[in-house]
Design goal:
heterodimer; A: 324 residues; alpha/beta; Rossmann fold; Alpha-Beta Plaits; six-stranded mixed beta sheet; 12 helices; 14 strands; B: 260 residues; mainly alpha; 11 helices
C-alpha cells in the first residue's frame, strides 16, 4: 500500500524551478531516502509535502489526504523533524513535548502515556525534567524525533537528521530510526546527502537539479553502475591475467600495477577464485560500487564535490553553535 | 475548543519563558522605578515653584506605568522574532492549528507580562509617595490591560514583519522614545504645538496615559485643574484603545499568514 503518492510536484521561485515535475511513491512501513546534493530540492519537496510551502504545480497525497485541499489532515498525519533545530531550549524536554501534544490535540491522559513511550524510545526518559539548553546536539535531535512521534503520525519526515552530528552520535541516531521502523512499523521519509546513510533505506530516489534522476532499492541502483571490482597484485602478472581471461571469459584490465576485473556478486566469486586459480596472487581487494559511484555515473560529479557558498558556511556554523 | 487550547498553549509558553528569566523581571522593573524616583525627586522641587496645581510624582505616575507597559509589551513580542531565528516558529506554523489563535496567544502572553509589571508598580505606589484610592483600582487595572493589549498587538505586528532580532531592536529604539515623549507622560499635551498634538492623536500611549491620569487624579484635584491636563473623555480613550488593538492584531495575523 502506498502511503505517499507524489505526482508531477513542481515548485518555482521567481521563475527558478527548484523542484521539477517530481513523481514517486512511498510504501507503508518503509524507509524512503531522498538523496541529493545541497540545493537539489530535497527540503523544498519536504516543505511542500508538509504543506508549509505552496505548490506551483502537481499534486501529492499523504495517507489519502491531498496536500492541496486537506492541509490540516495532512499536518495531523505527519511528524516532522526539520533540518535546523526547532526546540524551545528554555523549556524542559517534557514541556516541549506537552506544547506539541496540545497543539496536535492529544488528550492529556493520553499524553502522560505517550510521553513515556516516546521518551523511552529515544532514551531520554531520565532527562525529561531538564532544560533543553543543556542537551547535546544528539540529544536534541532525539528529542525532536520523540516530539514528531507524539501525535502518532502515519509518516515521519526527517530532513537531514544527522547533519552536524559526530559519527558516533550519527550511528546511534540510526539505531533509533531503525528501531522505529522495526517496533512501530513507522513509514519514514528522509533526506540526506550522506550516501553511506542511504544504504539503510528500503527505497531511494536520487534528486539533482530538482529532478529525480534514478530510483530503486540501494542494491538495484548499484547494479546499474556495474558489478563488483576485484583488484589483484601478483609477481606472475602475465600468467594470472592469462588464466583469469581464459577461465572466466572476462576482460582484465591493468591499472596502476593492479589487475582489475569486474564480476557480479563478488562475495561469492572470491572463494571460487581461491579454489580454482593456479597462478599466485599476492594481494586481493574486493570493491563493491557505492551509492557515490551511482551518483557519479548519473550526474558526472561526486555528491560532495560542490563548493559550499559563504551562506552555507554561515548556516553550518550557526547550526554547530546551536547544536552544542 | 482546539482554538482556545491553542491560545492557552501559546500563552502558557510565553509565561513560562518569562518566569524563568529573572534578570528580565528585575531589569524591566528597575527602569520605571528609576524614572519615578530620580525624575520625580529632581523635578518636583523645580516645578513646585510654578503654578502646576498637582504633585509632579502624582502627575507622572500614569506615564511611568504606560512606559513600563509599553517597553515590557514590546520586549515580550520580540519572542516571535526570536522564535523565527531559532527555528521554533516552524514547530508552531506546521501544527494543524489556526494562525489567528497563535497570534492571539502571543498577544495575550505579552499583555499578561506587561500587566504583571504594571501591577507591581501599582503595589509599589504607596511606598514612593503616590496616593491611589482603593475605589479607582478596578478602572485603573482595566486601562492597564487595555493599553498592554494594544501595545502587544502593535509589537506583534512589527515582529511578524521583522526577520532578525537586530532589526526589531532598532525599530523599537526608534519608536519607544518618541511614543513616550509625545504621550503626555512628562508634560500635559494641552499646551503643545499643533504638530505634536496631531502626532499624539495616533499614539496609543497618549490615550492610556490620559485615561489613567484622569482616573488617579479624579478625586484628588479640582476638576478645572484636571480638565486643563486632559485631552479626551475616558470613554473615548477606551474606544480608541479597543479599535487600535483590533486593527493591530488583525494586521499581525495577516502579516503572519503572508510571511510564514
Amino acid at each position: 500500500m502506498n502511503i505517499i503518492e507524489v505526482k508531477n510536484l513542481t515548485k518555482q521561485f521567481n521563475g527558478l524551478t527548484a523542484v521539477d515535475h517530481v513523481s514517486f511513491e512511498v510504501k507503508k512501513g518503509e524507509i524512503f531516502g531522498f538523496l541529493g546534493p545541497n540545493g537539489a530540492g530535497k527540503s523544498t519537496t519536504i516543505n511542500m509535502l508538509s504543506t508549509i510551502l505552496p505548490v506551483t504545480d502537481g499534486e501529492a497525497f499523504i495517507g489519502n489526504f491531498s496536500i492541496l485541499s486537506q492541509r490540516d489532515d495532512v499536518r495531523k498525519s505527519i511528524g516532522l523533524v526539520f533540518q535546523d533545530p526547532s526546540l524551545d531550549d528554555r523549556l524542559t524536554a517534557e514541556e516541549n513535548l506537552r506544547f506539541h501534544a496540545k497543539l496536535y490535540g492529544v488528550p492529556s491522559n493520553e499524553f502522560q502515556k505517550r510521553k513515556q513511550e516516546v521518551l523511552e524510545l529515544v532514551d531520554l526518559w531520565d532527562r525529561r525534567g531538564d532544560i533543553v539548553k543543556n542537551f547535546s546536539g544528539g540529544m536534541k535531535r532525539r528529542l525532536e524525533i520523540a516530539r514528531g512521534l507524539l501525535h502518532y503520525p502515519a509518516v515521519l519526515f526527517l530532513d537531514e537528521p544527522t547533519i552536524g552530528l559526530d559519527p558516533q552520535t550519527r550511528a546511534h541516531l540510526w539505531d533509533y530510526i531503525l528501531r522505529l521502523k522495526r517496533e512501530k512499523e513507522m513509514t519514514i521519509f528522509m533526506t540526506t546527502h550522506y550516501m553511506n546513510e542511504a544504504e539503510y533505506c528500503d527505497h531511494i530516489a536520487i534528486i539533482d537539479h530538482g529532478k529525480i534522476v534514478a530510483s530503486g532499492t540501494p542494491r538495484e541502483l548499484k547494479k546499474q553502475v556495474g558489478g563488483d571490482i576485484i583488484s589483484m597484485t601478483s609477481n606472475q602478472k602475465a600468467e594470472l591475467k592469462n588464466e583469469l581471461e581464459k577461465r572466466y571469459k572476462k576482460a582484465v584490465k591493468e591499472k596502476d600495477g593492479f589487475l582489475q576485473m569486474e564480476v557480479e556478486d563478488g562475495e561469492k566469486f572470491l572463494p571460487r577464485l581461491f579454489n580454482e586459480l593456479t597462478a599466485k596472487i599476492d594481494s586481493i581487494e574486493l570493491r563493491r560500487p557505492t551509492l557515490d559511484d551511482v551518483f557519479l555515473s548519473l550526474t558526472g560529479r561526486a555528491i560532495r564535490e560542490e563548493e559550499t557558498s559563504d551562506k552555507e558556511h554561515m548556516r553550518q556554523h550557526m547550526r554547530m553553535r546551536r547544536r552544542t | 475548543m482546539q482554538f482556545i487550547q491553542t491560545i492557552y498553549t501559546i500563552w502558557q509558553r510565553e509565561i513560562i519563558r518569562y518566569w524563568r528569566d529573572k534578570t528580565r523581571i528585575i531589569s524591566t522593573l528597575f527602569m520605571p522605578l528609576m524614572f519615578l524616583v530620580i525624575f520625580g525627586a529632581g523635578l518636583s522641587k523645580t516645578l513646585a515653584t510654578g503654578n502646576f496645581g498637582v504633585d509632579f510624582v502624582q502627575f507622572m505616575y500614569p506615564g511611568i506605568i504606560a512606559m513600563s507597559v509599553m517597553s515590557v509589551a514590546f520586549f515580550s513580542t520580540i519572542s516571535t522574532v526570536w522564535d523565527r531565528e531559532f527555528g521554533f516558529l516552524k514547530e508552531i506554523l506546521v501544527a494543524p492549528v489556526s494562525r489567528v489563535a497563535v497570534a492571539f496567544g502571543k498577544t495575550l502572553g505579552a499583555t499578561t507580562i506587561a500587566s504583571i509589571q504594571a501591577l507591581i508598580l501599582l503595589i509599589l505606589a504607596p511606598f514612593i509617595g503616590v496616593t491611589i484610592h482603593v475605589a479607582v483600582i478596578l478602572p485603573l487595572v482595566t486601562f492597564m490591560l487595555l493599553l498592554a493589549f494594544a501595545i502587544s498587538g502593535m509589537g506583534l505586528l512589527i515582529s511578524s514583519l521583522m526577520k532578525t532580532t537586530e532589526s526589531f531592536g532598532l525599530v523599537m529604539q526608534v519608536l519607544i522614545f518618541p511614543m513616550f515623549f509625545i504621550s503626555g507622560a512628562f508634560f500635559p499635551l494641552t499646551a503643545v504645538p499643533s504638530w505634536m498634538l496631531a502626532l499624539s492623536y495616533v499614539n496609543p500611549l497618549t490615550y492610556g496615559v490620559d485615561a489613567m491620569r484622569q482616573i488617579i487624579l479624579g478625586n484628588q484635584v479640582a476638576s478645572n485643574i484636571l480638565n486643563g491636563l486632559s485631552l479626551h473623555a475616558i470613554s473615548v480613550d477606551a474606544l480608541f484603545l479597543v479599535v487600535f488593538s483590533a486593527v493591530m492584531v488583525s494586521a499581525a495575523v495577516f502579516a503572519f499568514n503572508k510571511r510564514a
